[in-house]
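Weekly puzzle thread! Below is a chain. First person to post its structure in token form gets bragging rights.
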Amino acid sequence: MRGHEAIIRMRLAGYKPSKVWLLALGCGIQRTAFNDAESVIANGGQAEVHIAADEIPGTLDFRFLSGLFVLLQCGDKSRLRDVYSRLMEFEPARVIVSGAGVLHITSEGAK
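Winning reply:
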């Protein structure tokens, strides 16, 4: 998982992003100085977290997303469900899920 450390640093400094893109895409994301999830905030972009295809959703620690607005995108329906289920354990403020023919929006403050 990449991008979470930048968000943790923000939160420790007393800030939080208005929204976080959580990308669990099956293919690897080409990392450059401009699109690496750990540096995208510093480059003026919106917060992103990239989940690698070989990571097991049930083992991911999403505490840094607690209370935040999360935009979850995934291309595989089964993996999408697994990541969403794990994410909801950490009580994000709101989640919009898209990908694999799925669109789901939680109401604000939903648990």
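Puzzle host: Confirmed. Bonus trivia for everyone else. The chain has two helices and five strands.
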